[in-house]
Amino acid sequence: LRAFRSFSGFHGTNGRAWLLTIVRNTSYTLLKKNRAVDFTTPFDEEIHATGHESVSPATILEHSEDAELIKEAMDALPAEFREILVLRHQEGLSYKELGDIAQIPLGTVMSRLARARDKLKEYLAVRMSK
Question: Which of 34, 54, 108, 126 could form a disulfide bond with 104, CB atoms 3.0-4.6 angstroms apart?
């Protein structure tokens, strides 16, 4: 709905980046209003069934522990690093698209990505050495 209202601001260059910028800004506005909102969803085993009955409980536990550790590491990152890292590695956006969405220069995109990766490595190294 906001995209429709803001369509006059679209310059016809990169629709995906324009739309993701609206989503990003709307999300930040909602987060500021509702600090304690939990965006996670419960795991539904029926929906996520792999069909592989041979997966051992130990393997499932190991994967869930890894996922939890990565989630903790991502949550420990500052928001501006986490945002760029997620958009790059989970959404597959280009550096230019990241810059357009976050409204930052290309050099800042690259430095935030490098710093985010370094902080992630540091966090995981400390946690895995315990």
Answer: 108
CA distance linking residue 102 with residue 64, whole number of Å: 31
Residue with tokens 């939990």: 38
5-18: string of b/e by CB count within 10 Å (b at 16+)?
eeeeeeeeebeebb
Q: Tokens at residue 62, please? A: 């190991």
What's the pLDDT tens digit per position in 75-107?
A: 999 989 998 998 898 888 899 989 988 889 999
Q: In the CATH scheme, what is the code of domain 12-35+57-128?
A: 1.10.10.10
The sign one gets for the Cα dihedral 16, 43, 127, 55 is negative
The torsion angles phi and psi of 97, rounded to 5 degrees, stand at: -60, -40
Q: What is the DSSP letter of 72?
A: H
> Could you give the residue ranges of the DSSP H alpha helices within 1-130?
2-5, 15-33, 57-76, 79-89, 95-102, 106-128
